[in-house]
Structures are given as C-alpha cells and as structure tokens.
Amino acid sequence: MNALSELVKKSGIILVLNAGSSSIKFTLFTAEATASQPVLNLICDGQMAGIGHAIHFHAVDGKHQTLVDQHLADGIDHDQALDLLLQWISQHFSENTIVVAGHRVVHGGDLYTAPVVIDDAVITQLRRLIPLAPLHQPHHIAAMVALRKLYPNLVQIACFDTAFHHTNSKLVTNYAIPRELTSEGVRRYGFHGLSYEYIASVLPTVMDGKIANGKVIVAHLGAGASMCAIEQGKSVASTMGFTALDGLPMSRRCGNIDPGVVLYLMQAKNMTADQISHLLYNDCGMLGVSGVSDDMKTLLASADPHAKEAIDLFVYRIARELGSLVAALGGVDALIFTAGIGEHAAPIRQKVAALSAWLGIEIDAETNLAADGNEPACLSSMEATVATWVIPTNEDLMIAQHTLRLFLSL
Ligand SMILES: Nc1ncnc2c1ncn2[C@@H]1O[C@H](COP(=O)(O)OP(=O)(O)O)[C@@H](O)[C@H]1O
Ligand SMILES: CC(=O)OP(=O)(O)O
Ligand SMILES: [Mg+2]
C-alpha cells in the first residue's frame, strides 16, 4: 500500500502549525485520494491566542461551525498551550491519527529554499537564525521540540517564508556592504513567501491568464506587512530584507529605517542591542506612532489624531513601495491586496489606490466597500489600466500542500 492510501485509510491528519509570538495558529487537514492528485480537506481551523496573558482557544470545523471557544486560565506558556492543544486534538479527533506535521518557519536563511524534514541538524540550523527572526523563530522551534517529545516518530516538515524569494536576483538581494558580509549571508531574503506563493498559485484561476502571468504586485497587509513583485508566478523583489523588520511600517515593527537611527540609539541613548531590538520589533509601527493601538481595525475606528497619523504613514509607505516595485518589474498589470488589513480594511485599499492613481490604478468605491475579503473580488473601475483585486490568502493550505508532497515522496 502506498503512503497516500495508507494515510487515507487511517483518516490521517496533516497538522499545520504557525507558532507566533503570542499565538499558535493551527489547521487540520485530511487527504482524499483522487485519480489525478490528492485533495486536502480542511477539518479544523483554530488558534490559541493571547499566550502569556489570558489564552483564548478558538476553533471551527470545515463548515465554520464552532468546535471550541474557551478562555483558559492565566499564565499558561507556549509549551503548555501546545500540550493542551494536542490533547484537545487527540480527544476531539479520536478517530484520526496525526501522520505528519507541517510548520511555518519564517527564516530559512541561505540554507533552505524548499521544505525540509525536521531533524536535529535542521533544528540546530534554525536556532542559528533566531537573532534574525526573534518574534517568530523561537516559537517555531519550541513547537517542533514539544511535538517531538510527545510524538517521537512523527514526521515534521518545515516550510519557509523565505523560500519563495529564492528566485530574486543577486542585484535584488545584495546590500552595498563589503563582499565578505554578503557571502556570510547578510543580504535581503524577503518573507511572507507562503502567502505570496499561494496568491501566485490562484492568480490564473481568478483572473485573465495574461494578467495573472504578467507583472503583479501583492500587498500582504497583516500584523506583519510586506509587498512582493511577482512576474510569471515568481518572486522578483519584495520589501522585506535581512529580517522581517524592513519595508512597510507594521503593527509594532518600524519598517524601513535609516541605520543611523540605530547608531544614535546606541551612542546617544546608551541603549543595548536587546533594548533596541525590543524597541524596533515591539514598540514602533502603528502602536508607536498612534500611541493608541497596534490593531488597524481599532485605529480606523479611533478619533485620535495620532491614530490618523499612523494610518496615513502606513498608506503613504505602501504607495512609495508600490512605486519602487513597479520600477523593479518595469511596469505593473495587477495589484492584489491580501491578509487581515488587505482583505478587510476597505478604507486602506481606497487610500492606497488614491495615492497610486498616477499608475493607472483606480478602484470602484462601492465595489471596494462591498468586498468582504472572504473571496477574490476585482475592485478596479472601468477607467483603470491596472487590475486591482482583493484575494484572501491561505498560508496554511500552502503548508499542507508542501507537507503532503514531501511526506509522500519520503
Ligand atoms: N475588518 C477589519 N477592518 C480593519 N482591519 C482589520 C479588519 N479585520 C482585520 N483587520 C486587521 O488585520 C490585522 C491582522 O492581520 P492578520 O493577517 O490576521 O495578522 P497576522 O499577521 O497576525 O496573521 C490587524 O491589524 C487587524 O486589525
Ligand atoms: C514574516 C512576518 O512578518 O510574519 P507575520 O506577519 O506572521 O508577523
Ligand atoms: Mg500573518
């Protein structure tokens, strides 16, 4: 019996984990064998949010019916949260067995340009990258280690945010620094690659093939935010660099900043590396500028002028980066909005379009307001020369597909 039929027979679960600084997002899929290729069925989608404070454990099934909606006791840490989650999965899905786990891993460095099976050597390499992704990498590794403790024989697979950008040319990834630093890996990598890869994979199914294969710019606007220039389905350039601090200002991250600011913080303010890291990753972005919130929905509803200033800065930087990515592509056929803000915040899409009218971008105000981000929608007006769309992303499905493909090839 081959691996797929065994997986189907056992009603095997593919567990997808996206462990972040304050949440563990998870999805469960089963696989169905068809004549052409295996089909993945989502059976559960949930998260443990608010880790470190009061955890909210929420999950729905494939038909969006609530399976659990529970506030857990204070003080539960990441490992305990994962233990509770796995216990819940084994109780709730007692007919199924977890046969493989796929992890989102933010930084793959120079080593990983495709998904890999996680072993001791991989974990050692991923640990080396912790300073380059302090908000994400420690939690990914903690989840891998905890899962191994519970299921020593479970195959675990790492899928990287950086991998999709390995098609970027040297011209794009190089910084103007001494060659020795470049050769030790100090270069632009780019992130949110699983999201961009998913969007690239669905483009031909939602829009005209010529546009889908043309020059496309995707704005992934979530708590972390970046933009990517894609041509013929491949990443050409993106706004993030060596780390996920670069590019757009984010919910709590500063985005692009003059390195002279970091020197100033060290030399004039006597701040340590840890203090600066904390400042740039946690106290900047929308939260730092607004002093109100890191959450775009809250900022849009706020009457505080500093909230408006933060939103204006976010939109202005998106429009500036859009111009830069158009230059990288030598033109633009389509602009796609995705992730939490891109999918749901119509006013942000409208403001970005208004600043980008010079490119031939124009969206229909009513269509934009009506688009709820739950399915792809074309927003451009009749006069627009660039197609503007909102397309919901699905990083977890991408991880499940990679995980299943690699698992079946073992
Ligand atoms: N209806 C909405 N209007 C405005 N912003 C929204 C809306 N829904 C979600 N968001 C924003 O999306 C952001 C979270 O995006 P998401 O992609 O879920 O983040 P993460 O990177 O944690 O996955 C938050 O700033 C949130 O306020
Ligand atoms: C890479 C990154 O910024 O990820 P997230 O949006 O999940 O914070
Ligand atoms: Mg995200």
UniProtKB/TrEMBL annotation:
Return the EC number.
2.7.2.1
In this protein, the active site sits at: 161
Does Manganese count among this protein's keywords? no
Site (Transition state stabilizer): give the residues. Answer: 192, 253
Q: What is its main location?
A: cytoplasm
Pathway field? Metabolic intermediate biosynthesis; acetyl-CoA biosynthesis; acetyl-CoA from acetate: step 1/2
Where is it localised?
Answer: Cytoplasm
Chain positions recorded as substrate binding sites: 104
| Residue positions binding Mg(2+) | 18, 395
Q: How is the cofactor bound?
A: Mg(2+). Can also accept Mn(2+).
**From what superkingdom does this record's organism come?**
Bacteria
Q: Which PROSITE patterns match?
A: ACETATE_KINASE_1, ACETATE_KINASE_2
Q: Name one GO molecular function term.
A: ATP binding
Q: Name one GO cellular component term.
A: cytosol
The residues the record assigns to binding ATP are: 25, 220-224, 340-344
* Single biological process term from Gene Ontology: acetyl-CoA biosynthetic process
Write the signal peptide boundaries. Answer: none
UniProt keywords (A-Z) are: ATP-binding, Cytoplasm, Kinase, Magnesium, Metal-binding, Nucleotide-binding, Transferase
Sum up the protein's function in the record's words: Catalyzes the formation of acetyl phosphate from acetate and ATP. Can also catalyze the reverse reaction.
- Summary of subunit composition and partner proteins: Homodimer.
The text of the family note is: Belongs to the acetokinase family.
Q: What is this protein called?
A: Acetate kinase
What organism does this protein naturally occur in? Sapientia aquatica
Q: Gene encoding it?
A: ackA
